[in-house]
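During the no-cost extension, the postdoctoral fellow (Dr. R.K.) reprocessed legacy sequence entries with the updated structure-token encoder. One reprocessed record is reproduced below for audit purposes.
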Amino acid sequence: MPFTPDSILLAIESSCDETSAAVYEGATLRSNIISSQLVHINFGGIVPELASRAHIQNIAPVVQAALQEAGLGMRDVAALAVTQQPGLAGALTVGSNFAKGLAVRYGLPIVPVNHIEGHIFSAFIENASIQFPFLALVVSGGHTSLFLVESFEKYSVIGSTRDDAAGEAFDKIAKLLGLGYPGGIQVDKLAQEGNPKAIAFPRGMMREEHFDFSFSGLKTAVRLHVQQTLQNNVSPEALRDICASAQEAIADVLVHKTMKAVKQFQVRDIVVAGGVAANSRLRSLLSEHAARQSVNVFIPSMKFCTDNAAMIACIGREKLLRNPHHSYDSLTFGIGSTAIRAKYRP
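Re-encoded structure tokens follow.
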């Protein structure tokens, strides 16, 4: 049976530490269940083996919960979508194999989706008015990249991080300051009570002509400030100022590069996605700069910024509708760690 605009799609996401399943009925998101793995908090970061074990335990109940919330059963599903890459190998294997099992059991086509691709189009879950071409800034714990998106089928990298991702920098700074994991939320909270101009932390590659990013120098600067300037004696006030100043440095670079790309590529819409898209300062600063140039900024709701299956379903549905003659019956696709690397070619 061909996939139609009214068909039902079930999607699975398991690239890191969230087990998620979502159901689209036509163009309507009917459910989006996310099970987060709290066990990693005790280790200050993701432990791949523990993540895989948790996915094994969670995936069947999460998929069942998504179907139940949508009021549907597997017999109603017309197609599947699943995250193929990038991510943790063990975690991706759990989701991929579970989806393949469902495909075999129910005779369904299955669409492999790149996780970053899901983030790029995540804003379409709530807003279909985004106009091509647009810029997509994908910022998370593992990825910081800027994309020129010309259609659902054509997009390319115009800039990416050369070392730490923005979210990784937040987490490492938070760990250095003893704030716990995940660090981005803690830094954001304390930064709102601090002075963002208190410390002149470096803005890596901010004045370079290219659109690449670098945040490793910021992490080092924070460490040196704590150890040398403060002699490891960080008062509550100093802690708030460090968080505010470090956060401002990250947001400054992300916004500067994005707005420079807006001018060069003459786009009017910007999408910001990934876990760091939830950062309050990034949201406000980008909105301020975009408003001055009459540019629209689309940022998904908090629940769609983190890893979720709704974004996998959203682009998976587009693939099925735009490639009706493509065979998605093959189960030979593997999993991997490769993000989208194709550079822009004018």
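The beta strands are 8-13, 18-25, 28-36, 79-85, 110-114, 134-139, 144-149, 155-160, 269-273, 296-298. The longest helix spans residues 236-265. The remaining legacy entries will be reprocessed before the final report is submitted.
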